[in-house]
Structure of Olfactory receptor:
Amino acid sequence: MYIIIFIGNGIILHIIRIDPVLHQPMYFFLAMLAFVELGVCASTIPTVLGIFLFGIHDISFGSCLLQMFSMHSFTLMESGVLLAMSVDRFVAIYSPLRYTTILTIPRITGMGATIALRSVMLMLPLLFLLKGLPFCGRNTLTHSYCLHSDLIKLPCADTRPNSILGLFVVISTFGLDSLLIVVSYMLILHTVLGIASGAGRWRALNTCVSHICAVLVYYVPMISLSLLHRFGQHLPPLLQTIMANAYLFFPPMVNPIVYSIKTKEIRNIIVRTLSRKRNEV
């Protein structure tokens, strides 16, 4: 699974870097998505591989906090990048002639920096609140990595401030981002319905298919996991573990495949490269 994720996202990053044809806003945002998905997976490697390959079931408190901070920061960034990609699709469809003049490299860089800064600044208070809590007795996590929702069940102290702050972070990132993504697609649909040609409407919508898939494979497992943590205490722990792994590993494994199949430029480059390698052999 890790091999598929790292190879798939690594290929996307490499293709975008080396091919000047792909030096466009859409592909810069796709590169951001591939990068943060690699970051999410890299954050979980120490504990996941430690458990399944070496049978190591212990982690220090400091290491667990660091993993939680890193993993959640990258997942928040992923949500922000998906929002930025929906803005990119709206601009491309609403104003195609001004697409590259609106989404310039400085603006794209600023959007990426804002996404990263927002994620880090929202996660730091959660980190320091957890660090100041007392932990008593046997501290056992239900997942193979350190989730904030898992960690706040362990302290022998009042964790309501942590829960309230955690809820604020969720609403101000995942909640707001998903709402704005829906609004952007409502505007896209309104714009597309104004296109006279049926073929033109189809072409415009077809450019959004990959991003819609990325949004669904990101938010559906996340919402399902949140509902399980909130209402599924009576359900088997194995189900929660499966959903937690799907939430983290399914999007970075599927997105490179979807974009490689649905994006003509990337697909052509991959086919051309494979054909060249076959001819050399």
